[in-house]
Amino acid sequence: MYVRAFGVNRPDISRDRGGMLLDRVARGGVNAVIFDYRRMLYTHDTFQIGTLAGRVASRLPAGFPVAYVLARQHTGFVVTLMRTLTRKGIITEPFASHRPAIAWASEQVRIAQLAAGSYHESPVLHARSA
To answer: What is the pTM of this model?
Structure first.
């Protein structure tokens, strides 16, 4: 799942939208999350960031991959999130652009599926003429 946050992101917005996102992950079918914060301005203090990270970490399974696409001004915010998630067994990685983040998340999902014995190569699509 690719989540692009933009505009001013206050703690109450993070709480509400984060809860909706975590509910969606809990329903199944989401194997990784990529947060793109490049166009986001946040107003969270350190305590609020830690609280947000704790909520996220408590609802994701260990080994779940979470990538962050960020600009320099988001470093403190994202490092706090990553430290908390990593302590809870969540796999995290920061990126400066979206393509490497997507590739990383895809690879983490593939590795997890191989380890679980549930990986099936997607069939090759062929063009057909009528």
So the answer is: 0.80
